[in-house]
């Protein structure tokens, strides 16, 4: 394990596994997964993959993505996503992947909020992520090291030489010519979230610690319809496509109050729906529900089998029962700054792709189901750049293999305090006073005797708070609450 690899990929979600699929078979590649392979956000994705239906739809997909991104998108990145998306998805289908089809064999496309037409491909009904993940795992041609947490990047003179890992109670280094961060977002820094338990912003924290640029970290997306009343850390998401296909949001009196906020009602962009639900709950003190009564029972079980099964396990019989919902943290638009080939800013041999990356393809707000597509499209570009540069000469540098304590007594309580702090003060509605309060407390915690893993979470959280403080006006997912509003 300690030998030199051509490529080390940190993460086994769509971004990491599709990077692996796109690399030449004869390379010496190692994939690292912090936990079991399926403990990643890719596995839990429900709705599907947004992709232009035909050539005429490409400019419309671009427009929808730019509109959702609220002026913060990199137009070049969006252009790549929407133009290269159909090509990459076609290749994936040619590999043998089966998206859902109708009886005549035509691909089924559904609609989600802020898409101006049906262009979301799905698989296994609402199990798109699980199907994609399983398929990519089956195609994986390189070894994967499970239960392996990257704790540092090995960097000297602005070049990356590998990673330091914690595996089997041991700390050691893994060296590679190219290192790809595909470690996903930041879910666990928030109290209520939909993310896999592995998604705790370690790599964003390591980058902050090493002065590697993070960008747009204030841009955190909250999903409007999450069942948060369970004790599980990862809260059950109720996919956007439910609303796309007719589900309503009502208060305890059955009133569709979303229209008070936006004439598009349930089909408003997710930041608007999240903010509206949050605001309405605070102002009225009323409970909010997802009403699925427009679905025919048999159809619902077939179209949304995972949601049906999971909610049934929690005592809700769908589509009959109303489901109490609340917004929860869902997706990080902000991340590690990279160019359009995933090259990390100012660090040679280091790449980032997927939710961990910030190419500005999502701008200030991600259009629903654009992130799996991002994982597919940009990983192929990362693999292409690796192919073109792998044979360049690289020095051999050795790093020590020591790490300060990863976990210390008392970290758990502080971690929970941080999650609450981030949810309350750097969540859906923000204001300067509370953000400053959060920042002060995070700075205090950073001065305590704490383990490295908590330190990394704190460093990522500090980046989110500082970016939020810098952006004085509301934009996309970043919503500043003014007094009286
Ligand atoms: C419930 C849910 C539903 C969603 N539905 C959709 C949808 O329908 N359509 C859509 O487009 N998007 C959806 N998303 C978003 C989408 O799933 C993610 O953005 C995308 O899957 C991220 O892929 P990724 O490969 O970048 O990261 P992930 O799939 O999250 O994988 C990250 C990997 O990194 C590993 N890792 C993390 N830290 C470390 C470390 N320190 N050391 C080693 N390994 C590490 C993890 O173990 C994991 O293997 C959904 C997200 C959630 C949570």
List the main descriptive attributes of the protein structure presented here.
14 helices; binds flavin-adenine dinucleotide; globular; Flavocytochrome C3, Chain A, domain 1; 19 strands; 7-stranded mixed sheet; single chain; 485 residues; 3-stranded antiparallel sheet
Please tell me about this protein's structure.
This protein has 485 residues and is an alpha/beta fold. Among the domains are: 226-329, Flavocytochrome C3, Chain A, domain 1; 411-470, Methane Monooxygenase Hydroxylase, Chain G, domain 1 (Up-down Bundle). The protein has helices at 14-22, 41-44, 57-69, 75-94, 128-139, 202-209, 240-244, 270-284, 297-303, 305-313, 370-389, 411-425, 432-446, 452-470, and strands at residues 4-10, 29-32, 49-50, 109-110, 120-121, 144-145, 148-156, 159-167, 170-181, 214-215, 220-227, 236-237, 248-251, 288-291, 323-324, 326-332, 335-337, 350-352, 357-358. The strands form five sheets. Strands 1, 2, 6, 7, 8, 9 and 18 form a seven-stranded mixed sheet that branches. The protein has a three-stranded antiparallel sheet with strand order 3-5-4. Helix 1 links the parallel strand 1 and strand 2. Helix 1 runs parallel beside helix 5 and helix 12 (411-425) packs antiparallel against helix 13 (432-446). Residues 10-16, 32-35, 39-42, 44-49, 128-129, 148-150, 182-184, 194-196, 198-199, 202-203, 237, 331, 354-356, 369-372, 375 line the site of flavin-adenine dinucleotide.
